[in-house]
Amino acid sequence: MSKGGLNYRLVIFFIAIIFGVGFSLPTFLQTDKGAKISLGLDLQGGLHMLLGVKTDEAIKSKMKSIASSIKFFTDNNDIVIDELRVKDDLVTFTLLDGDEEKNLDAMIKKIPGVQVKKNKLSYTLSLSDKEKIATKKFAVSQAVETIRNRLDQFGLSEPNVAKQGKDKILVELPGIKTIE
Question: pTM here?
């Protein structure tokens, strides 16, 4: 090291200062050129929501769909049934013509995840526990994707949409002040 010359450490320090200021100017001036530092929810504030998904409604909807399939099948094949009802997570009906029992049983076997209880010509259909769990998981994942797609349509910067727990969805939107 010489006393009269510039110290190499001082030169490196000034070069680092120049680069630091140069790269941070777009953020400070809010220009479109260059990379900006994006402030998260903790630094700029925003919206933090925890949404619940009514997974029981998904099961009810699936049971209504199964009832509609049975109604469509019986109408198209001239099979007469009575008292087709959907109550909670059960579908019940009575077959009036015992000769059509094999055709109806074959159709019901094609529906995945359905448990059948028969008392003579009276049917009670329900979902298996495995199918209920799969339906609930699908409902939550579908809700997450729907929320994410809708937020992407608005062009929001860095929205965080994630599943939390069994039936909750966490939504974080940095920079959003209010929802109207």
Answer: 0.67
